[in-house]
Each structure stands twice: as structure tokens, then as C-alpha cells.
Write a structure and sequence with these properties.
Layout lengths: L7 E8 L5 E10 L4 H9 L27 E7 L7 E8 L3 E3 L1 H10 L16 E2 L2
Parallel strand pairs: 2-4, 2-5
Antiparallel strand pairs: 1-2, 3-4, 3-6
Length: about 130
């Protein structure tokens, strides 16, 4: 997306048996409300960094993805400390929408939690078709 910032990004972090990390990222932009995000926000902890157990709630992670399955792939780092290197990133090309109210609800709980866009340096960014 050539250095463009989005309103939010979903990160789905995966670890294999050897401890290698991969992140699938879905870009989120303001637009129509997102029903799945509504479900998640209804159950999000009201206190930052406090886990809660939610009974009876279920979600299908595939509902987080855009219908366009194209993506970018590159090696990068975690976006939160310790910002470890060697992470394989898969960033979906097409963004998914969520409403201004959905962005505001998250931002009220987690203000300014985005890491600045990092320089590409010598990284190779591959794109599917």
C-alpha cells in the first residue's frame, strides 16, 4: 500500500512448533460498520491489558478477511516490544471497512497504539496476483 496509513490494522499472530512467527494483517478503513467487529467490541475488556473470559461467544476468523485474497509478503518485525526481527508478514491487499464509531470505541481504550511506518530498507516485498 506504498506507505499509506490506515485507520486500523488487524494482526493475527501465528507461531509454529519451532517458535517461528508469522503475522497476517488486514487493513481497516473507515466506511460501513463491520458486524464481526461489533461482536468483538461487545466483548472487549473495558480495562486495558486485562483479560476476560467470554462464554457463549464465537467468531469465524475468515469473516475478518476481505473477499480479495491477494496479499503482500515480506520479512519484518513485531510491531510491539520487543519488536523482534525475522517475522514473516502477510498483508492483505484489500482493506475491510469499519465505522467511525467502531474506530472511536477502540481508540478510547487504546489511544496512540500504532507504530510508525518503518522504512523498507533492503526488504523484498512480494505481491500475489
Amino acid at each position: 500500500m506504498t506507505g499509506r496509513a490506515f485507520d486500523m490494522v488487524e494482526h493475527l499472530v501465528h507461531t509454529d512448533a519451532e517458535g517461528h512467527l508469522a503475522v497476517v494483517a488486514v487493513l481497516l478503513k473507515t466506511g460501513n460498520a463491520n458486524a464481526l467487529i461489533d461482536s468483538v467490541w461487545k466483548n472487549i475488556p473495558k480495562t486495558k491489558e486485562r483479560a476476560v473470559t467470554v462464554s457463549g461467544a464465537a467468531l469465524n476468523a475468515m469473516d475478518l478477511f476481505p473477499t480479495d485474497h491477494a496479499y503482500y509478503r515480506f520479512s519484518g518485525s513485531l510491531t510491539t516490544p520487543p519488536c523482534s526481527e525475522g517475522i514473516t508478514w502477510y498483508v492483505k491487499n484489500a482493506p475491510v471497512t469499519l465505522s467511525e464509531a467502531q474506530v472511536a470505541l477502540f481508540a478510547a481504550l487504546y489511544p496512540l497504539n500504532a507504530r510508525p511506518i518503518q522504512p523498507i530498507n533492503d526488504r523484498q516485498i512480494l505481491e500475489t496476483r
